[in-house]
Amino acid sequence: MSSLKPFSKLPALNTANILLVESEEQLQQSLAAALVEEASVTVNVRLAKSLPLPVENEESRPRIDLVVFIINLTSELSFQSAEASLKYLDPGYFLGKVCFMVTNARSASVPTERLDGVRKLAASLHCPLLFAEDQTSDGVTNATERLLTMLKVAAGLVPMATALYLSHLTRCTVPPDIDQPSFD
Amino acid sequence: MDDSARRLLQRLIRRIPAQMLKTTLEKWGRLTAAQKQSMDFTEPKWAFTERLLDICEENGWTGKHITELEMTYVIDNPNQGMWYAFQLMDPEDDARSVELTHFKEQFKSHLSELARPVSVKIKKHADDAIWIRIAWGDSFSRPNHLKPTYVVHHLQTPYVFVTSLTSKQKPFLSQALVLSTRHQAIKDASLSGRKLGAIRDLLMRQYQQVFPTSYPSPLAERNETVSNPQIEKEQAKSAENRLQMACEAFGDGMLPQLQSSVYKLETKFKDHTNKTMTEREEPFRCVVKFASTNLLESLRHCAASGIASTPVTPLLSSIPLKGRNYFVIKDNGPGPSSQTRQTQN
Q1: In this structure, is the dihedral angle defined by the CA atoms of residues A83, A89, A92 and A96, taken in order, positive or negative?
Q2: Residues B255-268 pLDDT 10s
Q3: Are B232 and A46 in contact (CB under 8 A)?
């Protein structure tokens, strides 16, 4: 089974590579455009709909420093697709090189179980969970900044900080009463 | 001008939106320059109607002229109400040589024989479309001009588009059309929509079609888009394949605007987890309706983005292929005049 491995390739100088996985292929386009504008570091963005990635690109693909799963909470398909893609990642990625980004969390049509499900998934994998607002350019800019912070650490470009260390601080936790009915 | 003509004019002016009044009256062309000057298009509609009624009295116009105005308005704004498509079948040998004056005479005479009294107005539009306005009456009353039927036909094509036709009037219209166009039968094309242009373009294939090729993009170098070299799509090839298949099924560019597609299922219920329903002998009747402001565009996007699996299922690709949006689906075995298919789980 072809899985993406975190350390099987050599890094490039002052470069960070990020992989955005999104079933709808919407937010990843605007995030990519904003990410490559970063001046201090060369950011390479790879876009995918789901994993596994095609074998043809194996040679030309650089070492991926951070994998971001973008889940649209209004779609069950989005969540299932992200969950199914997780098996194609080498376990080494889950030491701080994977992050979940969720959109439309404020939407009234989202069932609470889905957000709880994403939370539990992120917590069980010790990954951070970011909430993004994808409809405005400000929202995209904010999401980009947060991703860049994590990306620079994951690519080893920040002295004295490693991805594993950062993930201890940023990882998602579930409140102990998550399975209790809420007050809606 | 008698009462019914007056009422017709009032109804018509109320129906035409204020911004279209001026252009419609210009197109009608019956007002003299002086009368046009005297009309004030900014006054409220009831005042405007009074002024127009005065002018009509001055010029001695009758209901006939008012129906002409109505027809001018409808020809320019056909997208109101539902249009239904019909197809003429089995042309006779001289069907291809039916020309306009012959058709007009024949249609008027056949229809008047079948459904008297009836008031028919035929007009040829610039793009070779023949517009027919029919006001139906019965043995007790004069033709009712408040509920006319409009028919659009392009000569030498087998398609006819109709709006506002009741089931009682249908046989008369069908018979008159069949006889005057020299065909043997007419059938319902199972296509309906709000926009006349859209259903016409769909049936006559006036949209950009994409044909299957082995080498879709001409030269890779020529297609260098200005996208950032730092951004790379991993699954670009499969995305391109999906897009190609979606375009092959539905077409490229602007697609005719259909509003809905209806599937009437008369198939047996099939679900292994539900024994009681599966054991029933009778088919499980169910109607599935897809609705959208631009249905074909939505379906093409579904196929291109992977929501609908590619290659596109014939249930969806038959809409542009067969030019219909009403399907009846039965379990194996041919039905009389309905679309039949194998059931899919």
Answers
A1: negative
A2: 999 999 999 998 88
A3: yes
ipTM of this complex prediction, to 2 decimal places: 0.83
Of all residues in chain A, the one with the smallest CA distance to B239 is A49
- Phi-psi category of B81—alpha, beta or left, where left has phi over 0 and alpha has psi -120 to 50? left
Q: Is A108 exposed, middle or buried (0-12, 13-18, 19+ CB in 10 A)?
A: exposed
Check if A48 contacts B (Cβ < 8 Å): yes
Q: Above 90 in pLDDT, residue B191?
A: yes
Q: Measured between beta carbons, which residues in chain A are less than 8 angstroms from residue B238? A: 54
Secondary structure (DSSP) of B270-288: --TT-HHHHT-SS-EEEEE
Nearest-CA distance B226 → chain A (Å): 12
Nearest to B192 by CA among B103, B127, B289, B266: B289
Burial of A74 (0-12, 13-18, 19+ CB in 10 A): middle
Say yes or no: A47 contacts chain B, CB-CB below 8 A: yes
Domain locations along chain A: 15-170
Q: Which domains does chain B have, with CATH numbers?
A: 3-77 (no CATH), 83-204 (3.60.90), 235-330 (3.10.20.720)
Asked if omega into B311 is within 30° of 0 (cis), the reply is yes
What pLDDT was estimated at residue B144?
A: 86
Pick among B231, B307, B309, B310 to test the A interface (most A CBs inside 10 A): B231
Residue A175 structure tokens: 């409140």
Band (pLDDT 50/70/90 cuts) for residue B341 is very low
Encode pLDDT of A38-93 as tens digits. Answer: 989 999 999 999 988 888 888 889 999 999 999 999 999 999 999 999 999 999 99
Sheet harboring A66-72: ordered strands across?
A129-132, A98-103, A66-72, A15-22, A42-48, B231-233
Return the percentage of chain A with pLDDT > 90, whole number.
70
B232 to chain A: closest CA residue: A46
Record: fold of A15-170: Rossmann fold (3.40.50)
Cis, bond preceding B117 (omega within 30 deg of 0): yes
Higher-confidence residue of B214 and B258: namely B258
Identify the residue with better confidence: B94 or B296: B296
